[in-house]
Amino acid sequence: MRNHHQLLASVSRTAVLGLLRSRHEPLGVGEVAQQVGLHPNTVRSHLDLLVDSGYAVRRLEASRGPGRPRVLYEATAAPDDGTNYRLLAEVLALHLVSTSERPGEAAVNAGRGWARTQPRAGGEGSPGGPAISEQDAVSQVVRILADSGFAPEVSGDGTVINLHHCPFRELAVSHPEVVCGTHLGIIQGALAELGAPVQATRLLPFVEPDLCITTLTSRPPGATATAEITAEILP
């Protein structure tokens, strides 16, 4: 994983990121290539690096008829300097571990509580608004994760969110029950607040060095979100 300075040392890559940040709508490879004056293959390589590092997110354009939908890219709100408040996070994690009989469960609840405080725009999933689809709900949660630097990617069947980057990796290795539990709680809370017909049930940390996996399952109408901290998080 490249650090911030390595990633943005390329003038052309910085131009690609700057273009994405200047637009309010996602762009395709061809549009980016035309705007920055680079070959589409070069642009695609830059975009892949930006996605892998959490500076951009890719998604498929809504189908408009026959043919393969376009792949679109948009910038996230990941901080330029990589600041992640590590000291504060470590202090709070140590406090939770030392004061709670079940720090993992407490961390999940903390993550859910945080999700409940986040403002939501009107529309699907809002109180009094139309019901939100599973795809749209997951897309909104993926956006939250992308803005926080997790480099998320939804599996083709929609049952898994792959997290390719953890902004709190070192702390997660030391205190996975707290850090990973918090992240699971945030995902659960966000889906619950949206009234999504799907819930996050498990988070498998470090399945690969740069991969954590969150599993999603359908949520019966009226059911509350469940939390399952796996053996990989809590022995």
Task: Describe the protein in words.
By secondary structure, this protein is of the alpha+beta class. It folds into 2 domains: 4-75, Winged helix-like DNA-binding domain superfamily/Winged helix DNA-binding domain (Arc Repressor Mutant, subunit A); 86-218, 2-Layer Sandwich (Muramoyl-pentapeptide Carboxypeptidase, domain 2), CATH 3.30.1380.20. It is 44% helix and 16% strand. The protein contains 9 helices and 7 strands, in the order ααβααββαααββααββ. It has helices at residues 4-7, 11-22, 29-36, 40-52, 86-99, 103-117, 134-147, 169-174, 176-193, and strands at residues 27-28, 56-60, 71-75, 152-154, 160-163, 198-208, 211-218. The chain has a 4-stranded antiparallel beta sheet. Strands 1-3-2 form a 3-stranded antiparallel beta sheet, with helices on both faces. Helix 2 crosses helix 4 (40-52), helix 3 (29-36) crosses helix 4 (40-52) and helix 5 packs across helix 6. The radius of gyration is 18 Å and the shape is globular.
